Amino acid sequence: MIQNSIVIVGGGLAGLIAAIHLKNNNYNVLVIEKTDFPKHKVCGEYISNEVVPYLKSLGLDINSLHPTNIDKLSFSLVSGKSVNTVLPMGGFGISRYQLDDYLYNEAKNRGCVIVQEMVTDIEFLDGRFTIVTNLNTYTAAIVIGAFGKRSNIDQKLNRDFIQKKSYWLAVKAHYSGDFPKDSVGLHNFKGGYCGVSKVEKDIINICYLADYETFKKFKNVQEYQNNVVVQNPHLKVIFEKSNLLFEKPLTISQISFEKKQAIENHILMIGDTAGLIHPLCGNGMAMAIHSAKIVSELIHKYYSNEIKSRSELEEKYIQEWNFNFRNRLKMGRLLSNILQKPKLSAVLMRILIIFPFLLSLIIKKTHGKPITLNS
Description:
Helix content is 34%, strand content 29%.
């Protein structure tokens, strides 16, 4: 058995940020990630500027990756009716391939141990965890779950959301073409939503969420795009003027927006593992980063004896998660329900066209305030 202070299961955005934060506080950190680095992931690749102060406080120089600066939003319905606004806080576009690779190297250079193994089981007994992988068995006092949207570990833990069938499919690809660097597009089509924005190197990231009921009528992604997605005239123009850079688009199925528990079997869940924010909120990456901050600061307080027990640690984490994210997740689900109903969405658009400032208010409801390092 290999003993560790803190094990992070999953080396994505949330997991790597937590690893860097904890290592900055001199904790022994082991990250277990099943895939190799770097790797493209299905993701909107837009991050709100709310996380910039925190990233800087960790000693991370995201500007060295040459992200795009984004301060405008264009939102449209299937009909093509649209409304534009300035993003209250702004954000930046960066690919997961580039960002995860940077964070991976930063974590390793700072002394985090990162292994490529598949976790098959996590057990908690007498105040310690046993983590079993395809190659080793580890023990740890603290385990952070950062294994993404859907995992075999979710099934092992018998989590509620994994028992329910999900009807969402996500598709993502990079393109070359003409699209404003300073803007993110969020466009509704029958059965789904599509986000468009530029990342580094003048690359366009197009990522959309599709209802499986509408998708299954077609043979493949291309046929679906040609018959359904481009019914929105804005998306039609974007796809016509763009050239696919991937061999084929990436897809992920069974995406669930059901409520998740922030703690399962004493594992502290972060990022998508704790709750998947709807694409209509457009800010899942910032939420993942923020959740890594919250859990890392609380663990530091626990080891500093400011938090006296594991139960207190867990209680405070749930409180912090709900305070920062519960309402944002609710707003995303509400917007999704409205846009799936054509009459309601048409009413919403008419209101936004008459009172465009309301769109900024909605955005503020789905974004957080600037976050900084507390410990």
